Amino acid sequence: MNRKQTVIFGIHAVESALKQRPRDIRVLQLVEGRDDRRLNALAGLARNQGVSIERVSKDTLKEMSLGRHQGAVAVMAGASVGGAKKELLEADLPELIAQQDGPGLWLVLDGVTDPHNLGACLRSADAAGVTAVLIPKDKSADITPVVSKVACGAAETVTLVKVTNLARALETLKQAGVWVYGMAGEAEQTLYDVDLRGSVAIVMGAEGDGLRRLTRETCDGLVKLPMLGSVTSLNVSVATGISLYEVVRQRSLVAN
């Protein structure tokens, strides 16, 4: 394997790449000797998109991927995965805000470094219809093949904004009328006590350390999820999904 090559692997991630970024795929590699409906569907999609197909051995796919490939690996033409539909920088944030039609929903990840957590957060963000996900350029997981696999296609659809200064980016959101709420276990009020029907940003802290001091101080308020059992915290990706869907729930009540 050429270590400079980047790949996307897994049925859902490869399917999303074929639909969203076919020109970035150098070749689609499918395991040989398997008559599988899902793999055949990928092959048909690749042919329609003009993507070359190779049938290769299980050992070859195992070497190419970094996890459970499910018989499909897309070898990308670029030097990095860069899977996001729109990967923007902090300077693009004001224009992105201005383009928002209706209440925005922003997910801010303050230093999530585990690629599995980032992928799961992107998957929840896509499902909840977030406007964009903000992550720091440094001290954060990047979009890697593992992230793309865990995200099940969301890495190719979610708008991702990489910011140099997270606190400054939060101030930009606040100046545009976005209410910024940081998730913190020591908060006095729960997420369910807050009106989330307007434009809001949900800020999640890093695994273990939580929100950084400056991030915490920049938020309009701190909220928490009620913990009714013996555990004192949730995995960041689980907490993200719960928090985003509380926003969805409140807004659905208004719509109905």
Structure explained in plain terms:
With 256 residues, this protein is α/β, with parallel strands linked by helices. It folds into 2 domains: 6-76, Ribosomal protein L30/S12 (60s Ribosomal Protein L30, Chain: A, 2-Layer Sandwich); 86-255, SPOUT methyltransferase, trefoil knot domain (Alpha/beta knot). The protein contains 9 helices and 12 strands. It has helices at residues 11-20, 37-49, 58-64, 93-98, 115-128, 145-151, 166-175, 213-218, 236-255, and strands at residues 6-9, 25-31, 53-56, 72-76, 86-89, 105-110, 132-136, 159-163, 179-183, 189-190, 200-205, 221-224. The protein has an 8-stranded parallel beta sheet with strand order 5-8-7-6-11-9-12-10, sandwiched between helices. A 4-stranded mixed beta sheet has the order 1-4-2-3. Strand 2 (25-31), helix 2 (37-49) and strand 3 (53-56) form a beta-alpha-beta unit. The N and C termini lie far apart (54 Å). Residues 79-84 have low confidence and may be disordered.
List keywords for this structure.
single chain; 256 residues; alpha/beta; 60s Ribosomal Protein L30, Chain: A; Alpha/beta knot; 2 domains; eight-stranded parallel beta sheet; four-stranded mixed beta sheet; 9 helices; 12 strands; elongated
